[in-house]
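ugh finaly. both done.
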Amino acid sequence: METFLSALVTLTVIIDPLGTAAVYGALTAGLAHSEAEAIAKKSCLVGAGVLLFFGVMGAAVLAMLGISLEAFRIAGGLLLFVTAFRMLMGDHDQQNITKDGSVYSDRGDIAVFPLAIPLLSGPGCITAIILLINKSPAWFDQLQVYVAMVLAVVASYLSMKAVQRLKTVLGSGGIQIMARLMGILLAALAIQFIADGAKGIIPGLHG
């Protein structure tokens, strides 16, 4: 259960179901219910598919490119920290999502971008699932990681479906507070990834 709980907490914090739901709610405002529902389903399927691919093939891709896992940990940690910083600074707040010049202003296929990529399966989550699978050589442990990944994506889907109710219960301020708290946890996780990678590359840091 330790592997499962660690994977579930890590992936849920990175995916941030409440933050993803807030972006979804802003981008689907004014759409018919059936259209918004289809967008939620497609984004979760695409996001889960991307994570599954990198969970299965990620280590082989790194080996083919000659990238060490330690280097990937450091790079992934830096990317995670950028994501955490943006969460803390409010980049995912609704007023910032809908303003002119936002990275989310192009609504061509919002199920793929930004919902599936990068919110559900961005660099941070891809990094996390490769590292979690690498730390779990036994097939049963890897299965637990994949189950945790599916549950984290399902949590995002349920949050998208309930986004209006969430706004009523938590209010926009409550959702922003949750996003800030998850940003703090994600920043700490990013620093841990960087520290673990540095221990593997720089001699003398193991102690």
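ok and the 2nd:
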Amino acid sequence: GASIGDGASIGDGASIGYGASIGNGASIGYRASIGYRASIGYGASIGNGASIGDGASIGYRASIGDGASIGDGAKYDANDWMMVAGPQGSRNAWATAIYSHTTGVLRWWVGCQYGLTTAELRVSIERDHGTSEHGDDYRALVDFVESHPGLKRARAARGEG
């Protein structure tokens, strides 16, 4: 039930979910996991052991490194900036932050929370973790990402700041 484009390569032990779409010339690494209805664009590269969540979209010529974990519904294109960190919080969740070059918005995928803005994530951290160690860890991660030089360059390339 998946669509595999011409010239796409699928590594040994890779798992492709039902309804997934793999574009022409895309490369899926050894033991990578592509979720249900995920979309991998033309010429995109998914590293060995990487996990792409259900309904996630990896754009044209985008590159996802070995072992990276991209959350359900995340959208990442070649000109976007991304940071993945973890495990975080009481459930040892992975956090994915993606700055969209198209929209100029930084969004977060953490555990079962999808596509939150930084302001929405901060509210969630306070509500769910307060002044606990997990809250401190999340706040430090958000501050680190917001101050990261790569994010600053991505914003500058778009004409921000």
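summary for the 2nd one i guess: The chain has a mean pLDDT of 92.
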